[in-house]
Write a structure and sequence with these properties.
Length: about 140
């Protein structure tokens, strides 16, 4: 079994879709190893998305991610990283496969309901950014 990191973003939480997304995650065989609802502080979001600093969308991304509560996730499943990416669907919900989180719940490319690490290596970094080791045990 492996772990990956995910976020149910503020748009999905505000729309009342968090429970539906969590149910879909579990229905697809993921174990919820850690779950925490939080409202990201500006410096927390800026640090997390630092790789995008200087890009035209950075300020808007930080503003969006700090606009309301989100749900931080540590997900466990065999091949968790790839399976989570598959369940989320394409970044653009118009291109996402039927039944994926983004097809079902995303508003747009920018408000796309969920975040997932872009590599197994980054999943470990992102998990450590938001969770202490004992929370994942």
């Amino acid at each position: 079994m492996s772990l990956t990191f995910g976020i149910i973003k503020p748009d999905a939480v505000a729309a009342g879709n968090a429970g539906k997304i969590l149910a879909l995650i579990e229905a697809n065989g993921f174990k919820l190893r850690a779950v925490r609802m939080t409202k990201l502080a500006k410096d927390e979001a800026e640090g997390f998305y630092a790789v995008h600093q200087g890009k035209p969308f950075f300020e808007g991304l930080v503003e969006f991610m700090t606009s309301g509560p989100c749900i931080l996730l540590c997900l466990e499943k065999e091949n968790a990283f790839a399976e989570w990416r598959k369940l989320m669907g394409a970044t653009n919900p118009a291109n996402a496969d039927e039944g994926t989180i983004r097809k079902l719940f995303a508003e747009s490319i920018g408000k796309n309901a969920a975040h997932g690490s872009d590599s197994e290596e980054n999943a470990a970094i992102e998990l450590a950014w938001f969770f202490r080791a004992y929370e994942l045990a």
